[in-house]
Amino acid sequence: MSSTTPSFIGKDGANAGPKVPVVDLNYRIMCPDCKDEIPNIIEDFSAGDLVCGSCGMVLGNRIIDTRSEWRTFNNDEEDNTDPSRVGAAGDPLLGGLDHLDSTTISGRDGKGISATLNRIQAKSIGVRAEKQLLAAWKELATMCERIGLSKLVVDSAKQIYKKIQDENLLKGKSQEAIMTTCIYIACREQSVTRSYKELYALSRISIKELGRCVRVLKQHFDKPVQQVSVTSFISRFSSHLDLSPEVQRGTFLVANKVKQLGTLAGKSPVTLVAGCIYFVSCLSLNPRTAKEVADKCGCTEATLKSAYKLLYDSRAKLLPPDFKMARDVDSLPPP
Questions:
Q1: How far apart are CA 206 and CA 70, in angstroms?
Q2: In CATH, what class is 25-64?
Q3: Positive or negative: CA dihedral 170, 175, 181, 183
Q4: 34 backbone dihedrals φ, ψ, rounded to 5°
Q5: Between 48 and 313, where is the model more confident?
Q6: Which residues does the UniProt record annotate as the domain TFIIB-type (predicted)?
């Protein structure tokens, strides 16, 4: 018995070859009453129903509108209106209370009852307190932007500020002092280095006042406030001074050795970094002056020179023998 393979003739009469089976993956909906081959199905997104346009039978409900709400180039139109209907994102720190103050009660009842209801509602949801908190958070975000802090630090500062207000931890302190303290501790928590003097430029409160506020808050925190990382200061200040990678690497080596030997024990991290940068910079082909380093690092020139004097006395111990710079340590300028 011979078997034959079905073949098909094309329009031009030629053998079109065997037909490849094709699976129809289309999802077809048909009205069970009309049973039309070409069904007239209507998607009523406003009601969420799937309706037969011929007989009116509801074939489905709660359908999801997958269409775009607006065109992405809608700003080119003349009215230039915002088509969004959902508003701004809610703030999880407020627990949804940031949207409650938008509820209003009509005042046209002629009896004064609506005014009383509005007053009771304002007291019950604490609109005034929430508005004050939102205003403080806005000022916090502005202060953080001025010194280039990320949103992660801003959110952490907001949480700290809310904790201070809820527990009344810094009673009697000014708003500037409280906000600056929140930013300083938030930077520590997120391992972002900002010195006291950098924050002093934000609010002009004294460094002693900021230190007192930080010490008070340390007693009420579950986890200790992290110490400042010297290495992150080196990266930032080196970038401000436009130092070469060789000088940056040498500064890291000197700073680590200084910490081991305790050469600058008792000095602030900013002073330590500034002294190490100036020390290594003097060994390069393009040294920086003491004034340049002091200005970029946020310390006085006298403080920098006092740290450099201690480093100069221990200069033979600070750099490893295998690390070579353009100049030798014996050619360093005397303090």
A1: 52
A2: mainly beta
A3: positive
A4: -75, -45
A5: 313
A6: 27-60
> In the chain, which segments carry CATH 2.20.25?
25-64
Contacts of 271 (CB under 8 A, 6+ apart): 264, 299, 303, 304, 307
Structure tokens at 35: 């049973």
Question: Range with the lowest mean pLDDT among 2-11, 181-190, 274-283, 321-330?
Answer: 2-11
Q: d(Cα 238, Cα 240) in Å, to the nearest integer?
A: 5
**Please, where in the chain does CATH 1.10.472.10 lie?**
132-218, 230-331
Residues 6+ apart with CB under 8 A from 298: 195, 197, 198, 270
Question: What dihedral angle (degrees, nearest 10) is formed by the CA atoms of 283, 284, 289, 292?
Answer: -120
Nearest to 159 by CA among 122, 189, 117: 189
Instruction: Using a pLDDT cut of 70, give the percent of the chain over it.
Output: 75
Residue 41: pLDDT band (50, 70, 90) is confident
- Burial environment of residue 101 by CB neighbours within 10 A (0 to 12, 13 to 18, 19 or more): middle
265's CB contacts (< 8 A; 6+ apart) are none
Considering the domain delimited by 230-331, tell me its CATH architecture.
Answer: Orthogonal Bundle (1.10)
Alpha helices in the chain (DSSP H): 113-125, 127-146, 151-167, 175-189, 196-203, 207-218, 230-241, 245-261, 269-281, 290-297, 301-313, 315-318
Which amino acid would we find at residue 223? K
Higher pLDDT, 218 or 244: 244
Looking at domain 132-218, its CATH architecture is Orthogonal Bundle (1.10)
Amino acid at 238: S
> Alpha-carbon distance 183 to 149, whole Å?
9
At residue 51, what are phi and psi to the nearest 5 degrees? -120, 145
- pTM for the whole structure: 0.60
